[in-house]
Specification:
Helices cover about 25% and strands about 25% of the residues. It is of the alpha/beta class. The protein has 2 domains: about 210 residues, FAD/NAD(P)-binding domain (3-Layer(bba) Sandwich); about 120 residues, 3-Layer(bba) Sandwich (FAD/NAD(P)-binding domain), CATH 3.50.50.
Length: about 350
């Protein structure tokens, strides 16, 4: 595996209400949360929709708000996306994903909203009771309202039924962007990109910045899944990377590292394509496992929790916003608006309006 590393600049140190250090955008820890038994609003997820909802609640006069994030760093998917455009609608500025995520977290912390990272909600109970776990603690919180803002995820290799071994060099866009932008690691030099959605061209952008030269982009359908300007821009970014439509990947070749893939075109012809990695992109599905394992009603077609026009779930103590209820996936700006609307509606209900 090829790796590149660079020295990182230490983040400024801040402290939360428990006395724990906050480096950059990192926030509270489980001991402070463990002491909290009741809360007006718990928000699960610190992506654009979760942060927008928290800020809208604070602006409406709701102060007892807790945001829970299972990752080590808050900010959601945008912190992995080192390219514009982010933030035009929300902040009236053109930002890259990491800049956008840092600005969102800065606004959240400046509003004195409690944020706890490395905290995973394990169960949703009736009436707003949630169970959580953290590295050294577990507990429950009874909330008046709970907002699910858990976002979405890409479909990895297994659900796509691609055969072959498990060599190094297989990942999704999120994994690649996390490796490169957060850790300065490069998992391959000449991969095959599977998919042609907007996120596939985001992956192509990341490859260009990392010095990775994909050998081909494969699309099962007979046309790319983006508008022509994006596809044209992709050709420039790809520096000669061909887009093969009507083509799917059958088998991944290689033992320790990917050495190639077997592909099949629309006419049933098969051939081997030499590469050192496979990058699976797109086919987003809502991150709704919490809702699916709970008492909440689920839309059988999308797998999303069912909500009304106000974002309210079948249990009125629960709301959902952002990509956990959007199928297909939407951009960060749309998720921000969805979170704002949910936050305002929750505030209205808590104030008796």
């Amino acid at each position: 595996m090829n790796k590149q590393t660079v020295a990182s600049t230490p983040h400024p140190v801040r402290r939360d209400n428990t006395g724990d250090e906050i480096r950059g955008s990192q926030a509270g820890t489980a001991p402070g949360l463990h002491k909290k038994k009741n809360c007006q609003v718990v928000i699960i997820g610190s992506g654009p929709s979760g942060i927008a909802a928290a800020l809208a609640l604070k602006q409406a006069g709701i102060t007892d708000i807790v945001v829970l994030e299972r990752e080590t760093e808050p900010g959601g998917v945008p912190r992995h996306c080192g390219h514009p455009p982010f933030g035009l609608r929300e902040h009236h500025r053109l930002l890259t994903g990491p800049q956008y995520a840092r600005l969102n977290i800065k606004k959240l912390l400046e509003s004195n909203i409690e944020l706890y990272t490395r905290t995973t909600v394990t169960r949703l109970e009736s009436g707003g009771l949630i169970r959580f776990t953290a590295p050294d603690k577990c507990g429950t919180i009874q909330a008046d309202k709970v907002l699910l803002a858990t976002g979405t995820r890409e479909t990895p290799r297994a659900p796509r039924f691609v055969s072959g071994g498990r060599p190094l060099g297989i990942c999704t866009t999120g994994t690649l962007q996390s490796m490169f932008y957060l850790k300065k690691l490069v998992p391959f030099c000449n991969p095959v990109i599977v998919g042609s959605e907007i996120v596939s061209f985001s992956a192509l952008w990341t490859c260009a910045k990392a010095g990775i030269r994909p050998v081909a982009m494969l699309e099962e359908n007979n046309r790319p899944q983006v508008a022509w300007p994006v596809a044209l821009g992709g050709k420039l970014l790809g520096r000669g990377c061909p887009l093969l439509t009507g083509t799917r990947i059958i088998t991944i070749l290689g033992r320790e590292q990917v050495s190639g893939v077997l592909i099949r075109d629309r006419h049933g012809r098969e051939k081997e394509l030499a590469c050192d990695g496979v990058l699976f992109t797109g086919r987003f599905t809502p991150e709704s496992s919490l809702a699916q394992l709970s008492h909440l009603d689920i839309d059988p077609a999308s797998g999303c929790p069912m909500v009304d026009r106000q974002g309210r779930c079948s249990d009125p103590a629960y709301f959902a916003a952002g990509n956990v209820v959007h199928a297909p996936v939407t951009v960060a700006g749309t998720c921000w608006i969805s979170g704002q609307r949910a936050g305002r509606q929750i505030a209205r209900e808590l104030s008796g309006r």
